[in-house]
């Protein structure tokens, strides 16, 4: 049968409350619990699988409860819960030696000797009681916080008279490194098998390693047939005497091994002789602490260890005598306490003869308190005399009652109770007489109260009538007519209260709705419906409140959503629209939200159009910078088609068109120059006069071109009022015209004129120290024709051009006569 008990499934096991799970193994679970009777912490061990073999092991472990030793865990109880056995034992606040070794490795020699000596003491006591542990290993030794050790898990122990050879299941139960060779071989074993286990643990604590290496079958062979690894091969600071102890404890020949754990403990004390003073001081300190905690039995054990180390130590002898005196006093005090408890219990049960006997025994045991005990003895004797006199008066009371004289009977019983006030029989007899007296008085009082209640009822004073009837019912609760009248009065009273309550509730709810406080109104009507669940008025009020609360909630939702969306719209317009949509899911079709959403969508479209406009402008600027004027025109035409017809788009579009036109004019000039180039090449082949004629023409054209197109620089000197603001960058502006022109003025977009100086202003002309911005440049050609060109000056853009007709030059280049 598999049983899986979890703390969440358990409240108690037996009489023990479950606190938490401590550990879980292949065969059992250990819980921490508390004994509900005395509030003591316990450890509760259960089985996860109940088989006959495991149940037998469990019962064997429980039999270790017969052992009472400071170094052996105390078993409190063996019981069953839901068909599964459990053991309640002492809760140990410490760690297993196995974990200590795993975390710390080697242990100090003094600590090791203390643990092994305590282990020998506990096992020696168990051996003397006829119990062999048979599974001694670090996992079954608990080291408490104060250094004391406890031996646990006697699950595979055997009584001495039941010793037999190791069976296969037994072999599987133990860890073979700690099992004596004779047990592994199936031979008969006794307490010396436990001594072998102690020797292995001693070796492991001293070296941090096992005496026989490995975990497989070869290691098992070494345990049975080969010597252990010498201690000095592992550690050097080990006394020779300790090596001798290990040799005897780990002797494969049982007859060469220690006969008892006490014998081994004595040899270990010899090993610790050089540490005697430190060890004795430690034990004395421990004993004093235990004495302060009034744990004299444990203190005696510790002091006995100290005496074994240093038999002549005067402090240990003196403290041991003091502890023994306290133990004797406690033992005698316990005896006296038990006898006095029996005496008090007998006196409480009015068993006066037994109480006198127990008090007399207690006085004999405790001469020091004999005076106090004798006083109690005399008191019990006096109580016995009073009880005898009380019984005589009781007999007289019974005689008077039989004659119908209840008053005389009550007097006799009262006198008897004054003599024997704790007599339950006298109290019962007097109670019977008093009830009979009271019954006669109650009948008259009930009749009077009912008569008064009828008068109040007739006057519609229901509360007063009910009060009178309750008094009567308390006197005689069995009167049927009384209860009928009480029911009628109560019904009338409830109807009256119901009417008043409804008026009050409606008033309170109306007050709440005026504030408004819907939660309070709902709470009030809900509490009212608990008292009046079927009241139609309350049900209607409840529905009205819920409707008004929902309307108010929607209104609040609309207000908060609009406010939050307005705050979000500037930075997160899409999120603002999503917020409104989420609110519309909660309030579908809400008019204000719907209208607000329409406005948001329109604002969002405006934002999107503005972003698209900026994008087109940015693309156009980039195209202008690299001279892709057609592309810039296309982007700006797209922006215009998309609704962006503001001045910035229009001005930039005009600039792009002018730049494109200028570029086209430059191409024309280049095409115009091409006819002259062949003349220069033919000059060398012509006759001298013709050559002179062509040369003169070329000279005229070159002079004309240089005169008109040789670039000059003019440092711009803006008027004082036209000085650009601090932080505005400056650059240069190239002015040109085709074929040529005179620059008449340059004006910024703010209307401020740029000083051109008094020199030659014919193109090409360059202005330095010009602030970045927009300018309008006026050109005038040789025919007096003027053009105004809008230019943009930036860190990348510096050229501003105008195009005029060139008839004379073109005619001359073609060879036409004027």
TrEMBL record:
Q: Which UniProt keywords apply?
A: ATP-binding, Coiled coil, Kinase, Membrane, Nucleotide-binding, Serine/threonine-protein kinase, Transferase, Transmembrane, Transmembrane helix
Keyword Nucleotide-binding found: yes
Q: Where does ATP bind?
A: 45
Cite the InterPro entries for this sequence.
Kinase-like_dom_sf, Prot_kinase_dom, Protein_kinase_ATP_BS, Ser/Thr_kinase_AS, TPR-like_helical_dom_sf, TPR_rpt
For the protein in the UniProt heading, the enzyme class is transferase
The Enzyme Commission number assigned here is 2.7.11.1
Q: State the coiled-coil residue ranges.
A: 593-620
Q: Which SMART domains match?
A: S_TKc, TPR
The UniProt entry, under CDD domains, shows: STKc_PknB_like (cd14014)
Q: What is this protein called?
A: non-specific serine/threonine protein kinase
Organism in which the protein naturally occurs: Terriglobus saanensis (strain ATCC BAA-1853 / DSM 23119 / SP1PR4)
**Organism taxonomic ancestry:** Bacteria, Pseudomonadati, Acidobacteriota, Terriglobia, Terriglobales
